[in-house]
Each structure stands twice: as structure tokens, then as C-alpha cells.
Design a protein that fits this description.
The chain is an all-alpha fold. It is 69% helix and 0% strand. The protein has ten helices and no strands. It is globular and about 50 Å long. The N and C termini lie close together (9 Å).
Length: 162
């Protein structure tokens, strides 16, 4: 059976080298429970655990919300998370979801919807991870952000792939 370190080394896109080094001999579950980098958890949630894109974006928004934002941004974030407003205009108000909204709109408009949906999911994951990184640089508590992510994302550790 492939180790978790081998799994994240071989996936596309590949995990960053510092994350691969940090994983070492940890199992996927141990890495999930012990990780203190919200951007790595977001990447793991999307690329390894196959968590839906809207949950990934929610993680990024909640990480970014740990840092004081303007009132319009906070209203937008609350409305997006509760599902009250997921319009393009609402998404454009927050950098963490703007790429995803454009990609989703293009996918819905036609063309190769499978490719566009994949692009949109990757863009959303990158945006969510960067929201977490910038929230840390702005003084956010990375442990608190990781705990928020773990509250939203509940992996099925009984699945055969672990």
C-alpha cells in the first residue's frame, strides 16, 4: 500500500516540498489532525479528500474572516456562507472567490464544461489557500484557522483509500 507521503508526492498537482517533508511517516489521518498550516489543510481537503468546492471556498472565507475586514466584505462573507447570495456580484466583492465565480460562470456558459469545472475548482482552492496564508501574515491565528477547517471538513477515515 502506498504511504501518504508517496500519495501526495505523486498527485497532480503535486504537494509542495515542505508539506511532503513535513508529512514524513504520518498517515493521512495523522497529518490532518496534526497540521498547523491552514493552506496545507485546504490543499489536502481538495486534492486528497475530494471535498466539494463550496466547502473549500467556505474554509478560505472563514480563515480570511479572522482578520478585520470592511463591513461590506463581512456582509458578503456571511451571505455567501449561508447561501443567501452566491451571485457573481457578491463573489466579485471578495478576492477569495472571484476566480472561482468567473470560472464557474464560464463553465455554465458552455464550452468544455468538464475542463472549466476542473479549472474553477482549482482556482477556488488556490484562492482559499491564499486567503488563509494572507490571514496568517495579517496576524491571524493559524491554529484557530486549522480548527475552523477541521470543523467544516469531516473526512471519511473508514474509506478504503486510507
Amino acid at each position: 500500500m502506498m504511504t501518504f507521503k508517496q500519495q501526495i508526492s505523486d498527485m497532480t498537482p503535486r504537494a509542495c516540498q515542505p508539506a511532503i517533508d513535513w508529512v514524513g511517516d504520518r498517515t493521512a489521518r495523522e497529518a490532518w489532525e496534526q497540521c498547523e498550516r491552514p493552506d496545507w489543510l485546504i490543499g489536502m481537503a481538495h486534492h486528497v479528500l475530494d471535498i466539494p468546492t463550496d466547502k473549500i471556498v467556505e474554509c478560505g472565507i472563514l480563515c480570511a474572516a479572522q482578520i478585520p475586514q470592511s463591513l461590506p466584505w463581512l456582509v458578503w462573507a456571511r451571505n455567501w456562507i449561508t447561501g443567501e447570495d452566491r451571485s457573481y456580484e457578491a463573489a466579485a466583492c471578495a478576492a477569495t472567490a472571484a476566480e472561482w465565480a468567473r470560472g464557474a460562470a464560464e463553465a455554465a456558459a458552455g464550452g468544455n464544461s468538464t475542463i472549466m469545472a476542473e479549472w474553477a475548482a482549482r482556482a477556488a482552492t488556490r484562492a482559499a489557500a491564499w486567503a488563509a496564508v494572507w490571514a496568517i501574515y495579517a496576524g491571524g491565528d493559524s491554529i484557530k484557522m486549522c480548527n475552523l477547517i477541521r470543523e467544516i471538513v469531516k473526512p471519511d477515515w473508514e474509506a478504503d483509500r486510507w
